[in-house]
Design brief:
The chain has 342 residues and is an alpha/beta fold. The chain has 2 domains: 160 residues, D-Maltodextrin-Binding Protein, domain 2 (3-Layer(aba) Sandwich); 100 residues, D-Maltodextrin-Binding Protein, domain 2 (3-Layer(aba) Sandwich). It is built from 10 helices and 10 strands. Strand 1, helix 2 and strand 2 form a beta-alpha-beta unit. The longest helix is centred in the N-terminal third of the chain and has 24 residues.
């Protein structure tokens, strides 16, 4: 009995060895995967999402952009069923995060980014640091808010008390403002440059890592004025800590109805704002993209998110697709006109 069993085992072993040898020599083994990234992932959604999703913010924590994204991300988790982790990557007016996104070699739908216009839309026109990427190098998802620019002064400021006296002072003195970006890519910097180019002022920009750092410099007296967005300074305006000398919108803003527009004060038709939305790297599988975009849209339009942003001074302005693309293109044309770029 034992001999028969041993013989059977030997036969099985020899058979398996023969089959394995034939398989290795047949030339039908699975080829190794290519090390080159695919132009587009087209494998379908599968079990997406099966792990946490990351949203990058190219500015420091605590600023209006960061606060907005964190409100959205927390709510988006309810709609997509996975944690949505906010990662701050400040620097170069947002371009540290955006260059990383554009250069992504693994567009799997697990990383997307906040994008701010005019910063990202006008990087290719920045004469100081021209960027190689334009809005056409990203997969635009949706816009969330449009936040108008303002000029603020400290409540105890005596050198100037309104826009007229500020302009007169800046015509005779170098006047400092801090911004996270400089030149055409920044709505805040473009506001001051508008006065330099049209009214002979000498506003100079000190570049910082984000809105909170700019505000700290302003409060400490290291800068003279604060060019910012309504969402950055609404609490201080309401508390009376800041005096807003102008808002750069077509009409007065309901959140600060006593603040005059620049146009009302005789300073032209300038309208400047920060538009904040989201983008993916190119090449994400269409089914994955649709799942992410749908959850993002639901989070942006969630009544609680909309209400909290309004309290912070940011009006929800949802756009997607061609409407969003054309909106950014118009932003480009408006800024090019201010800087005299053909």
């Amino acid at each position: 009995m034992k001999k028969n069993l041993l013989a059977l085992v030997l036969v099985l072993v020899m058979t398996m060895t023969f089959v394995a040898g034939c398989s290795q020599d047949s030339g039908e083994s699975t080829p190794p995967e290519s090390s080159e990234p695919a132009a587009e992932n087209t494998g379908g959604a599968g079990d997406y999402p099966s792990k946490p999703i990351t949203v990058n913010v190219g500015f420091s924590a605590g600023g209006s952009s960061d606060v907005m994204v964190r409100l959205m991300a927390k709510t988006m988790e309810e709609y997509i069923g996975q944690p949505v982790v906010v990662v701050n990557k400040p620097g170069a007016g947002g371009w540290v995060a955006w260059e990383e996104l554009a250069k992504s070699t693994d567009p799997d739908g697990y990383t997307f980014s906040l994008i701010n216009s005019p910063n990202i839309a006008l990087g290719a026109y920045d004469p100081v640091n021209e960027r190689e990427f334009t809005i056409d190098d990203y997969d635009l998802l949706a816009n969330q808010v449009t936040d108008f620019s303002v000029l603020a002064i400290r409540k105890d400021e005596t050198r100037f008390t309104d826009l007229d006296s500020l302009v007169k002072y800046a015509q005779e003195n170098t006047t400092l403002s801090a911004c996270s970006a400089i030149g055409i890519i920044s709505d805040d910097a473009t506001v001051t440059e508008y006065f330099n180019m049209n009214y002979g002022t000498d506003f100079q920009i000190v570049q910082t890592g984000g809105a909170k750092e700019s505000e700290t410099m302003f409060l400490s007296g290291d800068t003279d004025v604060l060019a910012a967005n309504i969402g950055d300074i609404l609490p201080q305006y309401r508390n009376g800590d800041y005096k807003i000398v102008a808002v750069f919108s077509a009409e007065r803003v309901g959140l600060m109805p006593d603040v005059l527009t620049a146009k009302e004060q005789g300073y032209g038709d300038i309208e400047m704002y920060s538009a904040r939305g989201y983008a993916l790297p190119k090449g994400v599988d269409p089914e994955v993209r649709e799942i992410l975009k749908d959850a993002l849209e639901q989070a942006i339009k969630d009544p609680e998110v909309v209400s909290k942003l309004e309290e912070l001074g940011a009006a929800t302005d949802y756009m997607e697709g061609e409407e969003y693309y054309n909106f950014l293109k118009q932003n480009i044309e408006n800024s090019k006109q201010i800087y005299g770029i053909e």
